[in-house]
Amino acid sequence: MSDAKQDVLTCDDCRNEVAPDDEFCPNCGLVFVDNLKCSNHDDVEASGVCIICCLPFCRKCGGRVNKLFLCGDHEDYEIYEGRARVYGVSDEVTAHFAQECLKNGGLHPFLYSRKANPISGGGPEHTTFRASGEYDGHIINEVKVLVPCQEVLRAEKLLRDLEFKEK
Questions:
Q1: The CATH number of 79-161 is which of 2.60.40, 3.30.420, 1.20.120, 3.30.70?
Q2: What is the pTM of this model?
Q3: Which residues, other chains included, contact 144 with Cβ-Cβ below 8 Å and sequence gap of 6+?
Q4: pLDDT tens for each residue of 32-41
Q5: Domain residues of the chain, as ranges?
Q6: Residue 82's Cα: distance from chain center in Å?
């Protein structure tokens, strides 16, 4: 952690602001404290903290994906600018309803969609959305509901409880 200005600290890795008492960077997962042990191996030092579940993991249990530390369970999430995809649907009305449900649950959802321009002559709808997890290059035709990474688990539970299904 570096002192950029008085009382404002920044992560040495991603340069985002962090609180003075943070044990890890909530944006990239860089560990700031010594002797933090892996959640799965209590005798192994953690090499990072998963930005989704906020648990420390060693190199065997997690790693960097596009400069973000993610555990094995969360390495395939699409992450863009500190937000992760929790729901996707081609119907904008359903996406807006999911967004409202998440807002009512105290979360901070964001909708992302980049569909083809009507001038494109009827070409396929697509997006240039850059995922942090594995990306197989397929064309994505959906409105994505994104939440801050630390809200992912609560958002997914809320959507499951409300029986939202991917379409």
A1: 3.30.70
A2: 0.77
A3: 78, 85, 87, 88, 95, 111, 112, 113, 129
A4: 999 999 999 9
A5: 1-74, 79-161
A6: 6
Sign of the dihedral defined by the CA atoms of residues 14, 19, 23, 27, in that order? negative
Q: Average pLDDT for residues 101-110, to the nearest whole number?
A: 97
Q: Are strands 2-5 and 8-10 parallel, antiparallel or unpaired?
A: antiparallel
Reduced 3-state DSSP string for the chain? CEEEECCEEECCCCCCEECCCCCECCCCCCECCCCCECCCCCCCECCEECCCCCCEECCCCEEEECCEEEECCCCCCCEECCEEEEEEECCHHHHHHHHHHHHHCCCCCEEECCCCCHHHCCCCCCCCCCCCCCCCCCCCCCEEEEEEHHHHHHHHHHHHHCCCCCC
